[in-house]
Amino acid sequence: MDRFLQGRTALVTGSTSGIGLAIAEALSAAGARVAINGLGSAEQLEAALKRVTDAGSEARHFDADLRKPEQITGMLDAVQAWGEIDVLVNCAGIQHAAPLAEQPAQKWDDIIAINLSAAFHTMQHVLPGMGERGFGRVLNIASVHGLVASKNKAPYVASKFGIVGLSKVAALEYAAAGSRDSGGVTVNCVCPGWVETPLIEPQIQAHRNGGSRDDGVRALLEEKQPSQRMSLPEDIAAMVVWLCRRESHNVTGAAMPIDGAWTAQ
Ligand code: NAD
Description:
With 265 residues, the chain is an alpha/beta fold. The chain has a single domain, classed as NAD(P)-binding Rossmann-like Domain (Rossmann fold), CATH 3.40.50.720. Helices cover 45% and strands 13% of the residues. The chain has a seven-stranded parallel β-sheet with strand order 3-2-1-4-5-6-7, sandwiched between helices. The mean pLDDT is 98.
């Protein structure tokens, strides 16, 4: 593996599970030391840390409930005391599928706080230093639901359209930072369709219609994703790693679908 991120520090929020954990592992394999964050039991946190360190670099877990801005600030201060953040991946996210009229107000608040506002707080804290150093990568894990809507996902779709807009503003503000040689400061969204992780399990179960789990997966894919294949978390991580390379310096302000042609329709 090309350890082109040697000497860099990355923070990946929501990296105790799913896509974030795969991204943390891939960045570790690429040489970055990785600050992981996310919820879970002591055993889950230990298992996540082991996977990330086994991938090749140092890693530590930094606690923060991302619904709480003061905990986000505490986490960022602690990570920055460990190393200036060169790569910021906002991956933490939650979902609650229900018709708009039945969405609990608390779900709206939590989804907007974790999926959108947390990224505002981390970016606000980290981008000025990236600008001064002339290198930085912000990767926001949005969704196809940052590009198109689906029924029953009002807060989620609102949060993901929001993070696509937030990322474009930040990309514009930092577009001229650094140089081609230093790699510049880029801000992008990655927009996955269906990815095999715990987040979508309730939706798979809801689509079983009395059949097997595979029937639930097939039904979800038939509805939206023309490739009829789910992505794996490591497929998303591979795109994130590429976006961290120096030669991606002019890829900024983009919202890259990895969606089996979902949004081509
Ligand atoms: P996941 O449930 O496997 O992981 C979510 C992570 O977020 C976990 O580490 C969890 O601990 C963390 N998290 C949740 N609430 C938190 C809080 N209050 N504070 C701190 N951390 C918190 O889900 P995933 O599928 O890996 O999702 C990761 C991201 O990818 C999300 O933003 C999601 O919207 C997005 N996404 C997922 C899919 C998919 O099909 N799985 C598709 C498109 C986008």
